[in-house]
Amino acid sequence: MFVVKLIYPKRQSSSVKACFQGEGNTVPGSNRFFLILQDSKAKKAKSKDKKVPEADKRKKPKKEEEQKWKWWEEERYPEGIKWKFLEHKGPVFAPPYEPLPENVKFYYDGKVMKLSTKAEEVATFFAKMLDHEYTTKEIFRKNFFKDWRKEMTPEEKSTITNLSKCDFTHMSQYFKAQTEARKQMSKEEKQKIKDENERLLKEYGYCVMDNHKERIANFKIEPPGLFRGRGNHPKMGMLKRRIMPEDIIINCSKDSKIPPPPPGHKWKEVRHDNKVTWLVSWTENIQGSIKYIMLNPSSRIKGEKDWQKYETARRLKKCVDKIRNQYREDWKSKEMKVRQRAVALYFIDKLALRAGNEKEEGETADTVGCCSLRVEHIKLHPELDGQEYVVEFDFLGKDSIRYYNKVPVEKRVFKNLQLFMENKQPEDDLFDRLNTSILNKHLQDLMEGLTAKVFRTYNASITLQQQLKELTNPDDNIPAKILSYNRANRAVAILCNHQRAPPKTFEKSMMNLQSKIDAKKEQLADARRELKSAKADAKVRRDEKSKKSVESKKKAVQRIEEQLMKLEVQATDREENKQIALSTSKLNYLDPRISVAWCKKWGIPIEKIYNKTQREKFAWAIDMAEEDFEF
DNA sequence: CCCGTAACTTAGAACTGGTATG
DNA sequence: CATACCAGTTCTAAGTTACGGG
């Protein structure tokens, strides 16, 4: 239904190397990979080969079994019930504020000023961000200053009336020195910190849910600081206040050991709700939304849900043709509402747009999704660059990431869009008779469990599968096959518009590479000159020695040409990935079983595709998918 | 239907730490 | 040995969806 265009570097073999840079977990001989792919076989072999002392034998399997609990082989809970037993230690609070040493000064209007602890703390938040572009933004400064003043004593308030007169540079220097000092710490000191973190993780990083120890994702409470919204956020710079035990709701089993609040404090509430998955929650002060502490993606509760998500997408695969025919019919409907719904759904399906909920104006950055598109976000071109009926999209989506695309559409869609835009202002809704709730209700009627986001999952996964089929060359070696995998992944990332800001060091590293290329070019020119003169020489002398010299010079030229090509391909590859992020699609949209099956089919070690964390998250897929798995 | 709220997934940026490089 | 670099990890913002009450 949709086409993803990719430009590939010309030479495969050389860019392979680039792909492998930094993948440090390669094991010589690569046998170990197959241990993981063929777990059961490997285990059998192991127990035959190795003679383990009796005591060890008894202990180890038990431990391993606990670590490798295969929840996916167990029966699921009835709908709505998330757990039967839940015990945890509660959250870890942000460390208390440590006042600055006396010699670190803050200046107002050129004069030293000693701040109260509360005001000082908030000032340090700003000082720590001084190098960031944020602090130059008008809205950020205004919001910060307003909230900062709330923390000041009456005296401070009356003195400090202008942010521009505040000098945080000394404070900023102090923090930079601190960071530097941390880097310079001795091995022992660093180890001490590491040990302490490990202890914290061990104590607070896990919970017990239904007889199994599970890893918690975010057991640390977000520390206070200045709110950093994405894009043009009206609340940027506001003070994110410190969360206290009195803000915290604990959720756990009635019969579990209830985590005690820190001495001298109380929890806001302790509840025992097994219809939800969270362990701890609190209300954040910027948007007034609720934040949660939940389990790690490797947990049963997250894994099951993830698996279910892909199963829903696979059900969509079975009826997607029917749904597509349906919405194409609906383009002709006499009901405006139905037409809008059908065109919106077409965009969601074809372009993998997000649903697009309405947002409260002034509360968040101005971003849109499909249903919230405005007239100003599209341009209609009856003809553009030799193509008919082109729609030009230009809007900011989630995280204020720009979506820009020129898409040829069916005539009917085009005509409908013209109709929807008639007599509207640029800031009016394109789909004025539609919202996500209407759309999702309709989708629910088409297929149980179908919502707008299922299309994104479905199209991402099916694209990966298709692209893998298309791009994998059976004769390629492993690195070349992995390159194909990454390209398939890239096709999905482009479809889903997963972008990233070019890394800060990108230009520099690109320049380094370019200078390497330039040097190589010069080297090549030299080698060619030498070859030329050797040829001339050989013509005159006509002896064996000069002939040989010509041959070796020829080879040298070839070798340098190849090296140059490699470098250029590497540059292309890096350039192509400059603004594309592969990880989001890999983590959230691609059915891991497709990747696992592909690995098994071609004998690719799973470690080449998934790092340790990803293997933990996708353990279910790695265990259950065979090479013939079809999404 | 509208609206607000709750719960959960998805997202890019910032940070970290281990390793390659000079 | 210091430094640069980058993959992996952490952080938390920003979405989607369901639901209940008027």
TrEMBL record:
The keyword DNA-binding applies. GO terms for cellular component: chromosome; nucleolus. GO terms for biological process: chromosome segregation; DNA replication; DNA topological change; rhythmic process. It is an enzyme of class 5 (isomerase). It is found in: Nucleus. It catalyses: ATP-independent breakage of single-stranded DNA, followed by passage and rejoining. The active site is at 589 (o-(3'-phospho-dna)-tyrosine intermediate). Its EC number is 5.6.2.1. GO terms for molecular function: DNA binding; DNA topoisomerase type I (single strand cut, ATP-independent) activity. It comes from the Eukaryota. Its main location: nucleus. Residues 176-203 form a coiled coil. Residues 226-603 form the DNA topoisomerase I eukaryotic-type domain. Residues 50-63 have a biased composition (Basic and acidic residues). PROSITE patterns: TOPO_IB_1 (PS00176), TOPO_IB_2 (PS52038). The keyword Coiled coil applies. Residues 41-63, 530-553 are annotated as: Disordered. Keywords: Biological rhythms, Coiled coil, DNA-binding, Isomerase, Nucleus, Topoisomerase. It holds the Pfam family Topoisom_I_N. Releases the supercoiling and torsional tension of DNA introduced during the DNA replication and transcription by transiently cleaving and rejoining one strand of the DNA duplex. Introduces a single-strand break via transesterification at the specific target site 5'-[CT]CCTTp site in duplex DNA. The scissile phosphodiester is attacked by the catalytic tyrosine of the enzyme, resulting in the formation of a DNA-(3'-phosphotyrosyl)-enzyme intermediate and the expulsion of a 5'-OH DNA strand. The free DNA strand then undergoes passage around the unbroken strand thus removing DNA supercoils. Belongs to the type IB topoisomerase family. This is DNA topoisomerase I. The lineage of its organism: Eukaryota, Metazoa, Chordata, Craniata, Vertebrata.
